[in-house]
Amino acid sequence: MAGTHSHAAPRTSGQRLVEACSNLLLRLRFVVLVLAIGITGFLGYEARNIQLDPGFLKLIPSHHPFMQDFMKYATIFPGHNRVVLNMHWKGDGDMYNKTFMTEMEKLASDVFFLPDVDRTRVTSLFSPTVRFTKVTEEGFIGAPIIPETFTKTDEQLAQVRRNVEDAGIIGRYVGNDGRDAMIMFEVQEYSGGQPVRVNYYELANKLDELRAKYESADIEVNVIGFVMIVGAIVDGLLGVIAFFGISFLITTALLYLYCRSWKLTGLSLVVAMLPVIWLGGLLPMVGAGIDPISILVPFLIFSIGVSHAVQMTNAWKQSVLGGDSSIHASRKAFQALFVPGSLALITNGLGFLVIMRIQIDIVRELGMTASMGVMLMIVTNKMILPVLLSLITLEPSARKRAHAVDDGEEVRKSWWALSLLATRKPAAVVFAISAALAALSAVYARDLKTGDVGQGAPELWPSDRYNVDNGAILSRYDIGTDILTVIVETTGFSEACLDHSVMTAVDRFDLYARGINGVQSVLSVPAIGKMVIAGMNEGNPRWAGLPRSSQGLAVGGYAYNPDIGLNTEGCQAMKVDIFLKNHDGALVAHVVEEVKRFLDAEKTPGVTFRLAFGNVGVAAATNEAVEEAELEMLLSIFGAISLLCFLTFRSVQAVICIIVPLTIVSIFCNALMARLGIGLKVSTLPVIALGVGVGVDYGIYIYERLIHEMRHEGRPLRQAFYEAMKQRGTAALFTAITMSVGVFTWAFSALKFQADMGILLSFMFLVNVFGAIFLLPALAAWLLPEKGYARHRAAEPVVDRAVAQSR
Amino acid sequence: MARKSLGILMAMLIGVIAVYAFYPRSLPHFPATETNPTRLRINGIAMIGERLIAVGESGHILISDDTGQHWRDARIGPGAGITRLDATLTQVAAVGGKIALAVGHDGVVLRSDDAGETWTPVRAEAESSDPLFAVCRTSTGTIIAAGSFGRLLRSTDDGASFEPVAVDLPDEPHLNGIACADDGKAMIAGEMAQVLRSRDGGATWDMVQLPYNGSLYGVVQAGPSRWVAFGLLGHVFGTDDFGDSWSEIKTGAETSLFGGLKTADGRVVLLGQGSTVLVSTDGGKSFGIERIGGRDSLVAGIEIAPGRLMLGGEKGISELTLGRTVAALAGGQ
């Protein structure tokens, strides 16, 4: 689309280099073609190795202090990767009947033999470790809950019901109303201290199979745990491929409508697909996989690829219509677009690289994958496409209608009407409207929440089976699934749990935490110790205290058994589990803040409290990392783009004209998130960077033409803007619509966070172009000379040409 | 420059709006962290005037001036070698005027002379952690405290100091609960179904063995001459001759009973494991089950208004209105 005047002007050394490149490229075009086919074939074949990689550990902000010892304690205190299977009796009466118990026993044994299960930590009614104890005048009676030979006679079933009551496990392993029983296990993430690559999807599928096997008219099976979230996400990912298909078809239709040539449509699609295929092959080679967030990169790359292909094919078509041969038109298109197009892609890539500053692996991989894709596009779009174009001839249908969309009378009239905004008074009106909208949005944007908003697994829709199951289990048991774990490290004690100062310190913390708003309950070693000590004294609650002597504390010895999972051998480390009402970002931050307040004042020698683990600990760290990254990311992206604009145009006015619309759209984006109840989190944080990184193109293209027309052609401002819109407006609008539609298909994803990203990106891509065509001319009207630069034209034509041509 | 002024102004305005929009957002307001009266173990409740005092887990004393709507931590000063109290408290009693006493683990006794607002430890044992379980004031003004391993203490200075009482208890049973009458009589219920009684305001004590071998956790004066002792696994015994002869009362409950009280209208209420509430409306001759079948133990209670009880237990403070079930039935008919 650029360069229609270039052949007449004196050449700079840069242009000569570009020309030489274009000649070389087209002389070797068959070599390039063979190479392209070869590379595509090879990488396409390599792409078979691509792995879906939804690992838990990638979501963790590893640099955050909370997460420093996460790995260490993840091996000592598993729990974040627990799976809970609940069997619910829907039939008559309670669950103490032969059918239920038979099925439950079978399910427990099936679970035991699943792959990747830590078999030492499979717990249910049927585990020998789940025991009941009963106080009598003579002492205790205790035994496993299920009799050794369990034939499920009525008598035995009644016995099991009594044992369950005596064991005090109602609300934990057995549901509150006696119709639910639970099987819990840990996923084996480490074996002999080495991380195990768990096939989560396979395990989730196996669990789904078990669910299907045992569900019946009388029995419902609920399964929750990270594994199941992963399963649901991978299923959702497979659905995303269908969206890719839809997006592909829509793009095809739009492309054809725009260029009226099946050849150009096909070429654009093929060339836009190339970086996607190449990326698919390269990722497994660099050891990366596709995760739920980076799966969106192919869409993005494809959309950007199409938009750049449109510019190239458009420039080529204009030349062909002007009477050039295919190969000569290709050469001209390459010369005109290689530098500005590559620069635009580098700007995009910069936007994605900024995302890599966020110290969360899954986001870094998104940034890396997207930057890689954009860099590949410099080869595919700027080199392979001209070669392909040189090999085709434009069909007559496209020749006939070539001007209809791009340059018709109606279009010209609209652009002329629009160019009114480049005059002072209308511009002031645009200012007033924009400022009012920005101010209103800013007020809404203040309500933006960090972290999750809503219940259950935020990755999924509330109606998803996982969230339904989660709700069912939470309502039927007294357990919580939102846990903030604080680790207590002790030094200088051989048996820290037998030391009064250690135990009372932890106990004080436990009691304090119980009083924090939003905390539902707390589980700690001393609390269980007190319970056991009372239990050893016939269950008299008044004995529930922490004796000062080691011998006294030893009475509660059962509580300090590492097998319970709350402490290590000798209580060198203990954990305190704080159960929260939910994991809303604000609540999590409040609880963490209150916990810190207590710990700042808590000074017991040899006792260190370490924050924070558990899923809420991870959420707290992630939210803090996201919040911290938000400002840094905004400053980086806007700083980098401002600098790039300044270096390109050498003027502050250019920077203002391009950055101000982007800023307003970013405020809109935050306001939209707040209004739609979408939280700022790992998946939505990159949206503004992506949106700004891509959206800046529109502003740059239009401003570049505008200033070129003013400086070089000596046009007054309004005329120059009209020319800019004539040459680039349609392409920019087309690009915006194509990209917006492409990502909007995600809104129908089975995964809520993809839908969130889709809606927001779609909004950013579309509204950024409005910023560039409405607000940019208004800013220009008040920043640039109305009558243009006619006076300077003769004085410094070469410098101005170079500045304008560098885009 | 004037021609550019509006453009620059606009850019600056948007800049300011952006700073406002993206400026770090503060947290919404949350209620302050405070001791949650429903989330700590409460072992004893007493009342002085309008003020409720509840004692329990890890040295916490909660007070309420609006009959239990709001609770706050009482101030506990240093004393008896204790700088920070962390021993669990097991019982509290009003002992006349504005004086209240609380007892607990580590043999600790705390005293308040301002109706529970501030407390000072007056006694603690550095060596053993053995708990005291019971305290009351006899009609002669002597204050008696009892506890584990047969420990019996006496104070004749309104609880400012305590001295051991010599009493012959060969098995050293835990002395779990005490009741003081207004005629100088006092009775202590203990382990192995042993009961101590005194007719002279706690000056002298003698031991009675009940026809049972389990633990008794408390005793209530149910009528002028009727005393009821209760304990392990729902066992309840009554005597009409101050302990010479006892008979077992079948209640139908098999859960241990840890606390008892008498209401102003003469009903006797026993509290225990599994949220058990037993009520006698015939002066302690027979008991009916008012409520049973929860998961947590009730340990102590006091009547705050006719038929309205403030209870303490493993799940902290709760309220119960007696006779609701009966009233509901009557209404249904």
TrEMBL record, chain A:
Q: Where is the SSD domain?
A: 267-391
Q: Show the taxonomic lineage.
A: Bacteria, Pseudomonadati, Pseudomonadota, Alphaproteobacteria, Rhodospirillales
Keyword annotations: Cell membrane, Membrane, Transmembrane, Transmembrane helix
PROSITE patterns from the UniProt entry: SSD
A Pfam family the protein falls into: MMPL
Name the record gives this protein: Transporter
TM region positions: 24-45, 240-259, 266-287, 293-316, 337-360, 372-394, 656-678, 684-703, 731-751, 757-784
Show the PANTHER family listed in the entry. Answer: MEMBRANE PROTEIN MJ1562-RELATED, SSD DOMAIN-CONTAINING PROTEIN
Record membrane topology: Multi-pass membrane protein
What cellular component GO annotations does this protein have? Answer: plasma membrane
Q: Which Gene3D superfamilies match?
A: Multidrug efflux transporter AcrB transmembrane domain (1.20.1640.10)
Q: Which SUPFAM superfamilies match?
A: Multidrug efflux transporter AcrB transmembrane domain
Localization, per the record, is: Cell membrane
